[in-house]
Amino acid sequence: MTHYSPIKKPVRSDISLRMSLYAVIISLFFAAISVVLLIYIESNQAERELIRKTSQIVDTIEQQIGQYLWDIDDNGIQTTLQRVVELPYIKGASIETGLGNSFYIGDQSTPEKISRDIFLYE
Question: Is the pTM of this model over 0.85?
C-alpha cells in the first residue's frame, strides 16, 4: 500500500490567497499608471487647443487693431478689446504700442500670455 502525502489545505489556500492579492495589487498599479498617463495627455491636448484658439482670435483681430492704431482711434481699440474679452477662454487683453501707449481690458493678472508683434507695413 502506497501512502500519498496530501497537500495540506491551509497551504493551498494560503498560496491562492497570496497569488490573488498579487494579481489585485499589480492590476491596481497598472490602472493607476494608466489614469495618470491619460490625465497628462488630456491636459496637454487641452492646453494646445486653448493656445490654438486664442492664436486664431489674435489672427482675426490683428488687421483691425493695426488699422485702429494707425488711425490713432482709441475708442476703436477699446471696443475691439472689449469684444475680445467677451469671448470664451479670454480673461483680459492688452495692447502696448511702441510709443508707450497702453490699452487694457479685463483681468491683467493671468500668468499665461500670448503676444505678437504687429507690423503695419512689412
Answer: no
The region, left, alpha or beta by phi > 0 then psi within -120 to 50, assigned to residue 106 is: left
Note down the domain range covering 70: 9-106
Does residue 2 sit within a domain?
no
Nearest C-alpha neighbor of 89 from the set 66, 65, 112: 112
Q: Is 116 a member of any domain?
A: no
CA distance 35 to 29: 10
Name every residue whose Cβ is closer than 8 Å to that of residue 93 and which is 6 or more positions away in sequence. Answer: 81, 84, 85, 104, 105, 106
Residue pLDDT, tens place only, 22-78: 999 999 999 999 999 999 999 999 888 888 887 787 777 777 777 787 777 788 888
Our count of domains for the chain comes to 1
What single letter denotes the amino acid at residue 111?
P
Q: Which residue has the higher pLDDT, 41 or 116?
A: 41
Residue 45 placed within a domain: yes
The letter for the amino acid at 38 is L
